[in-house]
Structure formats: structure tokens, C-alpha cells
Amino acid sequence: MSAAGLEDTAAKAGPDCIQAMTHALAMEFGRQGIRFNAVQPGSISSGMTDGSGASGQSLGPGLPADADIALCAKATPALPLPAGAPFAGPDAVAAVVAMLGSPDAYFVTGTEIRVDGGSHM
């Protein structure tokens, strides 16, 4: 399977499949010192959500013209965002990914980390 095929498969899989895959890979490769974790971002500001992407659309590239961006805002995070910000910045996810890739996460494997400000609760 090509890398693109694997990416498409993972993108279409449900959260339970991602969790099962993360656990299975962590179990299979843990003895070799290879860690597997899943990062689950919530609503994050990006070129797709703020319209700064290549197409310059108001809702950003990749979203259908009739997309109701207000629906995303209904998943209110438990943590406050900076005044007027509809979504967290990409730095919120980047910090978690950087930590997982660092020596500080030497004992973290087989888990899912949500970066959604508590909106899943």
C-alpha cells in the first residue's frame, strides 16, 4: 500500500479504529523502544478555517461553500480562548506533538491525547 493509501485509510477510519491501531502498534513495537501515540485536535485555526489558504475563500479551501462554520463553534471548549478567537491556534497542537517527540515523553505510548480545550466533555 502506498503512503497516500495508508493516509486515506487512516483519515476515513473512525476514532475507535485510530485508538485500536495506536494500541496495537504501541504493543508491537514497544519492546524496540518505538512509541506510538495519537493526537486528536479539536477546532484549530488554519488556512481552511480562517480563509487565509491558497484559494482565499471566506471559509477557506477545502470546506464546502454551504459549510456552517458556526457549527464548529458550538463545540465550546471548557478552557477560555483569547478574546474573539473562534478556535485555538496551531501552536496548541504543535506543543503536544513536540512534547511527544521529545525525551520528556520517554514513558508515554499507546495513548490518545485530545487537544480540544475540553470540548469533548
UniProtKB/TrEMBL annotation:
Write out the entry's keywords from A to Z.
Answer: Fatty acid biosynthesis, Fatty acid metabolism, Lipid biosynthesis, Lipid metabolism, NADP, Oxidoreductase, Peroxisome, Phosphoprotein
Where does the UniProt annotation locate this protein?
Peroxisome
Q: What is its EC number?
A: 1.3.1.38
Pathway(s) this gene product operates in, as recorded in its UniProt entry: Lipid metabolism
| Primary enzyme class | oxidoreductase
InterPro entries under this entry? NAD(P)-bd_dom_sf, Peroxisomal_t2-enoyl-CoA_red, SDR_fam
Q: Which domain of life is it from?
A: Bacteria
Give the reactions, separated by semicolons, that this protein catalyses. Answer: a (2E)-enoyl-CoA + NADPH + H(+) = a 2,3-saturated acyl-CoA + NADP(+); (2E)-decenoyl-CoA + NADPH + H(+) = decanoyl-CoA + NADP(+); (2E)-octenoyl-CoA + NADPH + H(+) = octanoyl-CoA + NADP(+); (2E)-dodecenoyl-CoA + NADPH + H(+) = dodecanoyl-CoA + NADP(+)
Q: Which PANTHER family match?
A: PEROXISOMAL TRANS-2-ENOYL-COA REDUCTASE
Describe its assembly: Interacts with PEX5, probably required to target it into peroxisomes.
**Per its database record, what is this protein's job?**
Participates in chain elongation of fatty acids. Catalyzes the reduction of trans-2-enoyl-CoAs of varying chain lengths from 6:1 to 16:1, having maximum activity with 10:1 CoA. Has no 2,4-dienoyl-CoA reductase activity.
What name has this protein been given in UniProt?
Answer: Peroxisomal trans-2-enoyl-CoA reductase
